TrEMBL record:
It comes from Caminibacter mediatlanticus TB-2. Keywords: Pyrimidine biosynthesis, Transferase. Its EC number is 2.1.3.2. The keyword Transferase applies. The lineage of its organism: Bacteria, Pseudomonadati, Campylobacterota, Epsilonproteobacteria, Nautiliales. One of its GO terms (molecular function) is aspartate carbamoyltransferase activity. Carbamoyl phosphate binds at residues 50-51, 100, 128, 131, 250-251. This is Aspartate carbamoyltransferase. The keyword rRNA-binding does not apply. Residues 147-287 form the Aspartate/ornithine carbamoyltransferase Asp/Orn-binding domain.
């Protein structure tokens, strides 16, 4: 049975620690032969620049062969079902298929139809486990442990697959999580919530700012994103000189999610996340394929 990563819960704490051990070694950005002769297929039914290129670079640094399937030109555009696509891809003998889809649950369903590992690169508003893992890795680089730390997740949490993955991992590793946003952006939850960004920042060691997922809103929730930004943008005025880390899964809506000035601040780890993303995805590929 192949090991899949469709949800953060697919990995035990010990397995995550093993992946992070690999990732630390891979931060040197050197090319390796760990996956030479292995085949990895990227199939993205939803647009992605960073995640797709991050996986491609990760695979190539481990010397794997990578095929990017252009879904717009594939047989799915001609009416082939998702399951036929999966069966046909599986027949080509890949070691891993990396899937992004705008419908929740698709990677999990596909995992039942293939012999190789499936990695979920984001499914609807459900999960984005590799982003959650790289966010956790980035925090642990700075804090060593999340026990006793408080992390504020700010923005469109209800529609965010990143938030779901982050919440599960951060709480499992001992952090307290506060959700911050306007009422229409907050999910039903047992976690503490607030609409007051300044209050949350006063109690937090790190902030994860999220993009407003306007493409997932059935009806407009704000007259404009600037209205949202008035209360929830991360600015120098809000964070002052507090010892706090600022993160964002990207792409950042500049001056809506985070001010330009804060993006240049040394407390902002957005580019660290991108660098760590390649190393963590290398660790995930090595772990899933070799195990």
């Amino acid at each position: 049975m192949s090991k899949h990563l469709t949800h953060t819960k697919d990995l035990s704490k010990n397995e995550i620690v093993t992946i992070f051990k690999y990732a630390k070694e891979f931060l040197d950005e050197k090319k390796r032969d760990d996956l030479r002769g292995k085949l990895i297929i990227n199939i993205f039914f939803e647009n992605s620049t960073r995640t797709r290129s991050s996986f491609e670079i990760a695979a190539k640094r481990l010397s794997a062969d990578v095929v990017n399937l252009d879904v717009n030109r594939s047989s799915t555009a001609k009416g082939e079902t998702l399951f036929d696509t999966a069966a046909n891809l599986d027949a080509m003998g890949p070691d891993t298929i990396i899937v992004r889809h705008n419908r929740s649950g698709v990677p999990k369903i596909l995992s039942k139809y293939v012999k190789c590992s499936i990695i979920n690169a984001g499914d609807g508003a459900h999960q984005h486990p590799t982003q959650g893992l790289l966010d956790l890795f980035t925090l642990l680089q700075k804090f060593k442990t999340l026990e006793g730390k408080t992390i504020a997740i700010v923005g469109d949490i209800r529609n965010s697959r990143v938030a779901n993955s982050d919440i599960e991992l951060f709480t499992r590793f001992g952090a307290n999580v506060i959700l911050v946003g306007p009422p229409q952006f907050l999910p039903k939850t047992t976690l503490p919530t607030t609409y007051n960004l300044k209050e949350a920042i006063n109690h937090s060691d790190a902030i994860i700012s999220l993009r407003t997922q306007t493409e997932r809103h059935k009806t407009p929730t704000f007259a404009s994103l600037k209205d949202y930004a008035e209360n929830f943008k991360i600015t120098k005025e809000v964070i002052k000189d507090k010892d706090i880390l600022i993160m964002h899964p990207g792409p950042v809506h500049r001056n809506i999610d985070i001010d330009d000035e804060v993006l240049e601040d040394e407390r902002c780890l957005v580019l660290n996340q991108v660098k760590n993303g390649v190393a963590v995805r290398m660790g995930i590929l090595k772990f899933l394929i070799e195990n």
